[in-house]
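Methods — Computational structure assignment.
A single polypeptide chain was analysed. Its primary sequence is given first, followed by the predicted tertiary structure written as structure tokens.
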Amino acid sequence: MDAEYYQPEYLDVEKKLNAIKTESFENLAESILSFGAYSLTSNIEWKKDGVPYVNVGDIHDGFIDYTNVKYISEKVDKILHKSQLKEKDIVLTMAGTIGNAAVVHNIQNNHINGNQAIAKIKLKKNISPYYITAFLNSRYGQLQTLREVVSSVQANIFLGPIKKFKIPIFHENDSKKVESLYKKFLNELEKSKHFYSQAENLLLEEVGVEKDISSYPIFSIVNFSQIQKANRMDAEYFQPGPFQFGELVSVTDFKTQPLSDFVDMKKGFEPGSEAYQEEGKLFIRVSSLSKEGITDKDQKYLSEKLYQELKKDYEPKKGEILLTKDATPGIAYVLKEPIEGLVAGGVMRLKAKGNIEPEYLALCINSSIGQMQVQRDAGGSIIKHWKPSQIKTMLIPTAAKPTQEKIANLVRKSHEARKKSKELLEEAKRKVEELIEGNHQ
């Protein structure tokens, strides 16, 4: 009986879905489960490899991102057999960022696993998971999901309402067109990942850094002078690895220079949450950024008035590197297009100077070369902070210009493929919406 449930846009979705042929989600599925392990991080040891264990944060708009996925042993996987996911199963996030749906697609293992905040949907054999997932990510799927969200301490959605979702049933030819677009989206996404992996591998080969650091020594001896220089004395800071004591001494003698030699830096600003609006000019926060770009979901906006007052000092320019320094420090992205928006205090703007490729710099930061330096330097008990003074001293390998250009070109190809993939996903969602609205009319 809450007013939130009866918002006009929800009623409009309900009306249009009631006017066409639909089936309940549970009638199209063999099973819809949310089994998983509670308090897994404190009870089960993560592995470097094994069975991928997917969390809500790994599921994005239409796909599962395995970049930062954690792994569990086969023994633990057997204990959690009810939460196993196989090829062509659907996952739907139920807490945190609610409503992201993806198909388990092209996995290398026989299966993956996932936590309890994810609905795990196994469809009947004659139902296309690609079409269903496109619908769940469309306006009609998203609003149907958001309508059923409940909130006490943390917002979430339960399995009961998910099972009752209305799924439009169209002619097989129409659903196959949606499926085709969705598969093309996934193929372009794979191309993007391949190009980016090529760029990172080329960088590591050039510098001579091993991506697998398991062969590094398990202890190190530190002189007091090194403690004084670092102004740190915790063992974590001096753990063995390719960036021991701030130099690439363990695995390479490749020439490096501090990041400050290559860029001018500017910090963003923080207006306070009271300034946030549902629409207006984009406010680029740490949570808005990934190495692939600026995300669309959970975005915040600022007023036109505030934007006009501050854009001279805080609006990023095309070609600048946006770099996160708080919460999840070390995410770098080169802005591809002009943008009307302002940068938050947790984000740094880096403007390349001299003859350095911005895409090359961003890749150095996003690669293991940069990330291990970030992990070493960033401090904070609850929220991590990477100080601007530390950012300036990050070591960047000084590859020859032709190598920089080759790496930058691969990164650009990666971004182009990702952009195309996003367009294909939007086209698939739009096709579903047109089918619903066309049938309704």
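Note: The longest helix spans residues 401-440.
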